[in-house]
Design goal:
The protein is α+β, with helices and mostly antiparallel strands. This is RNA-binding S4 domain-containing protein.
């Protein structure tokens, strides 16, 4: 499980996928999200700009990211 520590109050979903190294670019993140391949807290996410806050868990391609403060 990858841990992303927040520097501000939130991080956007696309940025989190890039920061964790799960996608190579914002375009890759966009397509993965649009294709319904990414879940946030167990629910499919379709917004690349979705704000993730402390405690959120993102899953993509068998990998998990936890957002912490």
């Amino acid at each position: 499980m990858e841990i992303i520590k927040l520097r501000e109050d939130y991080i956007k979903l696309g940025q989190a996928l890039k920061a964790a190294g799960l996608v190579q670019s914002g375009v890759d993140a966009k397509y993965a999200i649009e294709d319904g391949l990414v879940t946030v807290n167990g629910e499919t996410a379709f917004q690349r700009g979705k704000k993730l806050v402390d405690g959120d868990v993102v899953s993509y391609d068998g990998q998990t990211i936890k957002i912490t403060k």
